[in-house]
Amino acid sequence: MAPSISSTKTDDSACATAGLASGIIVCPLDVIKTKLQAQGGFSGIADRATMGERVLAYRGLAGTARTIWTEEGVRGMYRGLGPLVLGYLPTWTVYFTVYEKSKDVIADQFGGKSWFTHTLSAMVAGTSSTLVTNPIWVIKTRLMSQNANAANASSQFSPISNTSSAYIKVPYHYTSTLDAARKMYLHEGIWSFYSGLAPALLGLSHVAVQFPLYEAFKGFFIGEEAEKSTNSFTHFWGVLAASCLSKICASSATYPHEVLRTRLQTQKITHSDGDTRPRYRGIIHSAGTVYREEGWRAFYAGMGTNMLRAVPASAMTLITYESQLSLLVSCSLNCKLTT
């Protein structure tokens, strides 16, 4: 039988290492993805009829990376790294801890670790981590979506391209994670930290698809006997293949909710001009607004970048988690044998 999780402390250490490693490496891709998802919500409604080169600030992975590098340099590529790392730690810690505990409890209730057990455990764990960490992700999204050059020029507008004089309105500017939290609380209230919570919870369908598939793929590639030896060559490549395939399937099926979440997170609840009517209100209204103004393609803005970002990050997180967990459990067992 494969080593079981012996304590919450073991879980926390493994999750912290996995989240920190993956968060730092994929941060530039997360910035690019966020800008591609958010830009449609910043441009004026009157510009929708001419949605083209003049309106779109960022176009594709390479074009967006070039624009960010030109306007902001390397710091722009790592905008929002603080809350990204800060968010990974509690997210994965809560998720994996609740997932493993729920899996054991549900298996006892329904007799065995079936597909239903993995799915329900993933939903419970995803709900728990989302409710705990949503404020961090709102701050991260806002930091990544803003443009430093426009703010430094004392403007609320962000240039659409290096050669165009057209602008899109970014209704906020924050200098740090703490500055974002302070301004959001003062000007928008506590509920601003839970913007996009509904589509985030809808996104639990993602983890409900990914982790049961991960368990199934891992069992297929590794097998019962190979899983006992967590240091084997087969185990490493089995975990890698399982994590990549499960992430690709889950991301492809559930990606539109990420665009809706980003749009809700990047809009201000109140405005300086006194207009307090939000552009996006809830999942249904937001989906209708995006479709009416931008078409169905907007629901997949940044999907390619997301795949390039999320698949390696997921693989790294799961591989690091499994290896760290195995190491910590082995050390714990060795310590017990020597005492």
From TrEMBL:
UniProt signal peptide: none
Source organism of this protein record: Choiromyces venosus 120613-1
Entry protein name: Mitochondrial carrier
Entry GO CC: mitochondrial inner membrane
Positions of transmembrane segments: none
Protein topology in the membrane: Multi-pass membrane protein
PROSITE patterns xref list: SOLCAR
Record keyword Amino-acid biosynthesis present: no
InterPro entries xrefs: MCP, MCP_dom_sf, MCP_transmembrane, SLC25A33/36-like
Gene3D superfamilies cross-referenced by the UniProt entry: Mitochondrial carrier domain
Family: Belongs to the mitochondrial carrier (TC 2.A.29) family.
Solcar repeats: 6-105, 113-220, 234-327
